[in-house]
Predict the structure.
Amino acid sequence: MMIDDLIERLRLLPGAQIGCGPRHKITPQTEQATTISEFLESHTFMRQDHGYVDFLERFSGVIVDNPEEDIGIDIMGFDPRVANLAETEGPLVDSNGYALIAMCSYGEVRSGKLVTWEYDFAFDATGLRKRGIYRLTALGGEVVKGFEWHVRSFEEWLAELVERSGQYERPT
């Protein structure tokens, strides 16, 4: 499935806001072209995933903010509505060599208590691990599983996210 088709399906989620990149079909944000190009020049490992590069250039980020179902999804990019890849709070690449590109957070009330969980998705920046998307799992703010290889490509992960209607199950 093409990135455009996946994004159109993602757009149907309540609270979804789709960004616009320099190659957006309707509203191109050409001022982002240099920023994205320079970012990819300094993070060449991301260029290996052509679907991710296409996503950045076409949409430059997605956010889903659905407080009714306590779902928050942020696929980082350069659109002003999303977490900016070049302006992260800490280093983009963590001490283990993972570059965070997306966060999916959830919550639900169980027995009168709020339970939260999060899945973070990243690329390997070291070149020493298998290519693809890696996933970290956290429950209640504590890491349950560190980054592990998850799928072969950004497009495959995006298809999974869409197929799940943006919802990953609560870890046990």
Strands lie at 16-18, 62-66, 71-75, 98-110, 113-124, 133-139, 142-151. The first strand starts at residue 16 and ends at 18. The helical segments are 3-10, 32-42, 50-58, 154-163. The mean pLDDT is 94.
